[in-house]
Amino acid sequence: MASNVPEKYKTLIKNNKRIDGRKLDELRPVKIEVGVVPSADGSAYIEIGNTKVLVAVHGPKEMFPRHMINEDRAVLNVRYAMLPFSTSERVRPGPSRRSNEISKVTRHALESVIFLEEFPAMGIDLTLDIIQADAGTRATAITAASVALAHAGIPMKGLVAATAIGKINDKLAVDLNGPEDNFGQTDMPIAMISTNKNITLLQMDGDFTKEEFKTSLEMAKKAIDPLFEAQRAALQKYYE
Amino acid sequence: MASNVPEKYKTLIKNNKRIDGRKLDELRPVKIEVGVVPSADGSAYIEIGNTKVLVAVHGPKEMFPRHMINEDRAVLNVRYAMLPFSTSERVRPGPSRRSNEISKVTRHALESVIFLEEFPAMGIDLTLDIIQADAGTRATAITAASVALAHAGIPMKGLVAATAIGKINDKLAVDLNGPEDNFGQTDMPIAMISTNKNITLLQMDGDFTKEEFKTSLEMAKKAIDPLFEAQRAALQKYYE
Amino acid sequence: MASNVPEKYKTLIKNNKRIDGRKLDELRPVKIEVGVVPSADGSAYIEIGNTKVLVAVHGPKEMFPRHMINEDRAVLNVRYAMLPFSTSERVRPGPSRRSNEISKVTRHALESVIFLEEFPAMGIDLTLDIIQADAGTRATAITAASVALAHAGIPMKGLVAATAIGKINDKLAVDLNGPEDNFGQTDMPIAMISTNKNITLLQMDGDFTKEEFKTSLEMAKKAIDPLFEAQRAALQKYYE
Amino acid sequence: MALLYQNRQYIRNNIAKKREDGRTNEQFRDITIETGIIGRAEGSARVKIGDTEIIAGVKTEIGKPYPDSPSEGVIMVNSEFSALASPDFENGPPREDSIELSRVVDRGIRESKTVDVEKLCIEKGEKVWMVFVDITIVNHDGNLIDAAGIGAITALLTAQLPKLNEDGTVEREEFEGNLPITQIPVPVTSGLINNTIITDMSKDETECSDARFTVTTIENENYCAMQKAGPSELTEEQMLKIADIAQKESKRIRAAIKTAVKKHKA
Amino acid sequence: MALLYQNRQYIRNNIAKKREDGRTNEQFRDITIETGIIGRAEGSARVKIGDTEIIAGVKTEIGKPYPDSPSEGVIMVNSEFSALASPDFENGPPREDSIELSRVVDRGIRESKTVDVEKLCIEKGEKVWMVFVDITIVNHDGNLIDAAGIGAITALLTAQLPKLNEDGTVEREEFEGNLPITQIPVPVTSGLINNTIITDMSKDETECSDARFTVTTIENENYCAMQKAGPSELTEEQMLKIADIAQKESKRIRAAIKTAVKKHKA
Amino acid sequence: MALLYQNRQYIRNNIAKKREDGRTNEQFRDITIETGIIGRAEGSARVKIGDTEIIAGVKTEIGKPYPDSPSEGVIMVNSEFSALASPDFENGPPREDSIELSRVVDRGIRESKTVDVEKLCIEKGEKVWMVFVDITIVNHDGNLIDAAGIGAITALLTAQLPKLNEDGTVEREEFEGNLPITQIPVPVTSGLINNTIITDMSKDETECSDARFTVTTIENENYCAMQKAGPSELTEEQMLKIADIAQKESKRIRAAIKTAVKKHKA
Could you give the ipTM of this predicted complex? Predict the structure, then answer.
């Protein structure tokens, strides 16, 4: 949502096609692979368009630091990081305000589906490394995370997948790519549970009328189905 | 005590009047209010001239961090901070060498009047937030602090108040304001106990002859009385 | 090994003499003094040429931090620091990547001679302060460290001393000084045990043929003897 | 002090029937907005929502623009939990909450283009105004995000730019006009407690809540920012309902902000 | 997970006869090198040695040169253990290992003048290219230094400099040619386990080892960097032997790097 | 090592009659001042007071002036407890003491205008000399503030400014004259132990003391800085007495500094 829009990104939709040829309600190509980090208890690699994320789960295991132990349930520790070479301008290593906030909302996006009470006093570490960023990094990471948690054998009441609904050239569109995110009007990452389509993450920046917001939620509900399918297919393929 | 004195601050005393109209031995207007932070155990708001400070006390309570516990007495934890918007140039949030030192001398200025031995192994947290700074922030904070401690019901053998004696245009003056502090010759913050006028804090930067130092101590002893009165009046008003 | 070599340092060897008059296999003057820090359990001051280092040992004593305790043996904690005024450009106080790495290799250079198993669960703190740096600071510090450890009465199976072999103007030379290190081709710090000349530290940056590497090790073996003598003489002098 | 388990359960079980302080589910506590409270700041505000109190102050500095936006000034919103506000901050896990508060308010101001940052450019690629909005929590009785958001926009609306001298130095005691503010975003947060939607939750209610949803509305009734928080899921209907409440309540709050700013400028 | 004492002893006692995975003492695991894996990076590589996997990426920025080398660009190699790679990193003493890894790879590239930093100067004393090589450990099964070193040089060999606009800004999507790389240093690490020299140690073997020695060789068979690690002493003969192995093995690895780079540029 | 309770009580009970080392109440230990001890520093000094030993070194850099004093150089005094000096520093609460030491010495030099910072301006608003005085505690046997203060001023008095080349770079091996020093402030610290005033306290005495008072005097016998420390109160009379002692003792110490500096320049 920068102010200086380069000429080539002024028109983001032409003949109902987006700059990468997608329709308004079409996701970018999705690729999910399970078990990519041998030393982790669960792991997944995901590509959604040009956004690439590696996710690893370690645990359930002894909880560190000790003073954060919850005697009634496992604690989910989430660490989201953009690798230094994942964007145009190098990202300095180490946590930032942005990455801390995303770690928190990601944790909240996943906690409600995990049976944390089955592992009292333990910790589950979830690492999300953004290898290449082209918009939608938190949504992409969440989609991979629930696959990695399943791979680690952690019991869940459903999968969580996430995408974004945005507004570009005054039209609603699914799963924004980099230029659409940078030069569009609105971006709304949203995460849902596979079983009931309830919402576990929703953030929005930009501009929505009440009607647009309502429509966006409907669009998300539909658009997210292929992600659940991709998650299931990846797990199935791994165990075949 | 900067070297470039603007024209208008070259003469800080004219006809025995200071730039804000005060006499040499006159304090700035004082306003103290008790109980301004409902969630704290004790609190006070103070204005001395344009210097404004909020003070809160939490405790006596469990001591953190644990390894700093003193089994024989309570530990007084002091945190002095200038809020980012309290001065001309924004203050970066977080502790600095200056704020750490002031936290320490403030603690020493108050410890000798508190019956800390009545609360072994406990902690008393004292937070001093400088909302607006116009010289004398540590003195003003100390004056408010003993009111907030009293409001928290912490037993003390007396109140502590503080002011500053300075030298401007070669004359001694009480309770410097901002320009007097910046363009004067000497600044000496000093804290005393109400019961015996003994000194619990004294710092000095600038230039004093032996005689001037002696006179300064005498001036402080007199000047500080209205502060003790204002402290008592504020507490009385609160409990009425 | 900088690229801009000043005129006066282009020729580092003339008639088999180095810029400070030394022969190729000659150490700089060595001076070691024991017991220079009265409050420490062991200490040594060393000058090798213009490189000056103070070393202090505290312990064996209770180990901090507690979670680093090893129940089977003492832990050697090494802290290497260049004092701010030790080099041309001021060194910012506090640990750096470089100082952390040197602390680690120094620890490894000394651990194998200390009977750490005689002090289970304890800690030995070794502080290395570089007062003046003119190349070879880690080697100089290691040479002083085993003297300070001996002074602290810590049992060792031998002394460790260290020097550097370098290549300047295509010739191998012992114990590089500042300009030789900066404008030479290769620097190889090396530490050996007095009893068997085995190697406990070796690092190299620059360029060595296989033959040069072999010759360097031989040169080090010979060059290091005067250092062991200086160590023994300093300890003897102290106890006389 | 954290709530006892019994108190938590009591609040949760009874919330559908009545709130502790007798409010209706969607009812705000009294809001007071004061301006011009800090003489050293370029703009300032004190906001109280019931017993919750925050102070917001605006400061400006001259700095270098970011390489990827050479002709834009910089706006930063920062909120800190002072130890003043609650003893819990010392011990508990406050940092993460503090960061979320800070980020939500920051994004609500920055990404909604509330400040026209292009007007803050002094010399392209070299010098721009950097505008800092710092928010201090003085007393914490819940709903910090709304209080902080109201404080931030009020402080910005009353802020002035210091005069810039010919030689590039800043004249801190003279001013050259207002900040270029384009709109008045107002955040309204509701929470879910035991499946009941509750607006403007107190601190105790927040501790009993399962999820929160902040919706920020601008004057034309459009939404400019949203943030769900808390571990529980929300249904589509609950979200739409909370967005409706926000649209409605924000009008009244925006009117109060405007009144305070008008009074300040009079 | 750290090795149990019994496993440690078993590996140590049998190492002279056979390695856990059946390799000979000086035998490397399979090495695979991929290039161009990160579109946002100026150069990138993924290196696997057995189950060990690292990713290396090159990024460039414009910065000020150091005061004592005003006409030289800056090259920085940084390696981080991601929490991805092993749960041990959370609890144990990883920082020191991480720093050593980082320093050894950094020195291997920087002090060997692998990058001709004088060609990275844009305006003497004012503007130079800063080249960052960042390495992330994705899976840790030992021999991280060799994997990181191979990844760093491969990423540098495939990296391009972004175009510099007339007005001094960087055009991130166009390029102006390769980085000035002068040689291909290859690190090879062997360790000492119970007095036996073992090359390319697995993670378990590393935990059983008494000392390690990394020797970096350039194309003309000369050594450009060395680093001994670990608390035990090494004899002169052991060091010479390990240096010999490095010289021999580095040839094969350098050939693999060249093949990967050639394929990338085709 | 902290004192045992019994030792503390013994020292406190007997202090009025005799000090552990036999000195009279106001008597200093032997002071030795050496100069020019660090070849790399622009100025340096080693100060011993009894077994207390500190090293002070002056370094210079070129930097930007602060925005509110564009034609003034910068002087920074920093003192660090090295782990060399005492094992207590590892465990105890050293940071706060270290900061106070640093601040008191820093203020004693900076706010007393000991260095004429206007003469350190190279180019108004752009380039000034930054002068760093770094003090390292080598051995701690009490009275660090006085030792550090003496070391700082001695190092400054012997310091020279490096030569500035035409092109703005610094020639580190040539010099252009002395630093502009205007006066010689000397701190003298006395403490209160069980109501007795004791000057130049040892480490054990410091641990037994109730309060300390540092008074810094300049050549004309005026005071330029004071700092009370420690939790106990002092009476007016005690403060005046300590200030008297400082005035008297500072003369002898200043003479020793001058002798050392004269010898250095000869």
Answer: 0.90
